[in-house]
Every structure is written in structure tokens, then in C-alpha cells.
Amino acid sequence: MSRNESIVEGAALERFAAQRCEFKEAANNFSSTLATLRETLLSKLPSGKLNQSVLELRMLDLLPENLLAALRKVFGDSFDALGRDERLTLAAASSERVVSHSRVREMTRLHSVDATRLLQGLVRDGFLESHNPGRGAVYCLPGAAIPKPEEVFLAGSAQSTERSALLESSSAHLSDTPNIEVEQRDQDGCLLSGQLDAPVIDSLNRLTPAFSIELEKLAIEPRSKKKIAEEAMQKAILAVCRGQFVALSTLAELLKRDPHALRQQHLKPLTRDGKLRLAFPTAPTHAKQAYRSAE
Question: Final residue of a domain: which of 140, 175, 210?
């Protein structure tokens, strides 16, 4: 690739990154905002006189204008021509990276069949892309960069291995060693990746002693007891995962629980209820899956 081609490609990547940041900023805290709006409206409406259509319409009207503007920028007038349920679905997809069938039903209160038709229609008309065909299907905006475990974890390992091999070569050739990117970590020892919007705790051994102690305090009850109430366990999980993704194996080690049991009994329900976010939505059962509290 020539220097000019590299410059053009770099500029294109910068524009794409800027657009992603614009979406991310516009859709910040969409899930919590939606839940808060629903609770507020429910509290103000007379008991027994709830009209679901009115509720959903008001929720749509109260969505952040910059979020709606970002979607209109991408889809043009076609966005406003959609029904309120379709627009709510696209708003969730822009902020949460992906939506699922259950997430659509939770937001819209549609029947399962109607939610399926809604998603199929949005895919058919080019508003969404589908991944993981079948019961594990998730949907994202067209062209959205959905991270994969191998891009976040294995790439860093390969780079480190290659760098080590280069350093073992003759010192006479060190001046010719290419500038190879190595994994980056923050001040606490968490892995940083351009694919994710938060750092990742992928190994307790890589963390600073101070941060390790802080996490252990948050997980003190499950660490000290073999059996605790479900509510207490989920409270500890959400506290540990607040502000960063935590890999399944690392979370299990911190909580002193079996990874498979932890996933089945607690992580899946928390994810289904929208309280946890997956780092890799298109690979929900991947061994390298990581979780972050929905903030």
C-alpha cells in the first residue's frame, strides 16, 4: 500500500470512529433512561387505566433528541416513517450495540409473533442486520462493529508472541525491527481494546494489588460463603462488573464459583433482564465472554 493510500485509509477510519463516537454519546444510558421513563409514566397514570399505546408513545416522545437526530442522519426520512415500536428498537440497537427478540418484547410489550415480524421487517428493509440465526439471534445497525473474542484477546497474545520472537533475534538487526502493537492496559491492569467501550478484567494476576483488594471487598459475601441468597449474589456481580467488562473465568475465580453454574444461574438471567451487557453479543456462550453492568 502506498503512502497516499495509507493516508486516505487512515482518514476514512478516523471519520468512521468519529461517527461511532457520535452514536455512543447520543445514546448514552439509553437503557436506564427507558426504564426510568416507563416507571415515571406508570407512577403518574391512574391505576387500572393504563393504555399501553399511550405509554409507549410518550416514552418515544421523551427519548433524547440527539439520539433521534443521529438515527435520522443515518436513515433519513425513512426513520420517521417507521412505527413507534420500530423506532424504539432502532434506538436501543444504536445504544446497546445489539437487540434481541426478548429485548424488543420487553421494550414494546409486543406478542412474540409480532416481535418476530417487526425484527424480520427491519432486517428486510435494511434497518438492521441479523447475527446468530435461531433462538440466539441478535440484531445490530447496518455496518456496526460488533466485537469478537478473538479480536480482543487472541490478537493481543499473538502480537506479544511475535514481539518476543523478534526480541530474541540478533541485536545486529534490532534497528530493522518493525513497530508492532502490543496489548495495552490501564492503571489498574485492565486490558484495553478499541473494540470495546470499557476496559476488561481478563486476569486477576494482571491487576494492581490495590484494585484487586477493592474487587475482593465488593465480592466479600460470595467469597466467604458457599451459599448465599440469589439477590446477594447478583448484587455482588453487578458491583464487580460496574464500569468494566469482567471475563467469565475471572469473575468465577473472584466469586469462588464454578464458571458454568455461575453463567447458568446468575449471568444469563441478569443478561436477559437487561442488567448485564455482553462484551461479545454474537457469541453469548463463548468461553472468553465478558460481562458489564448496564449503567
Answer: 140
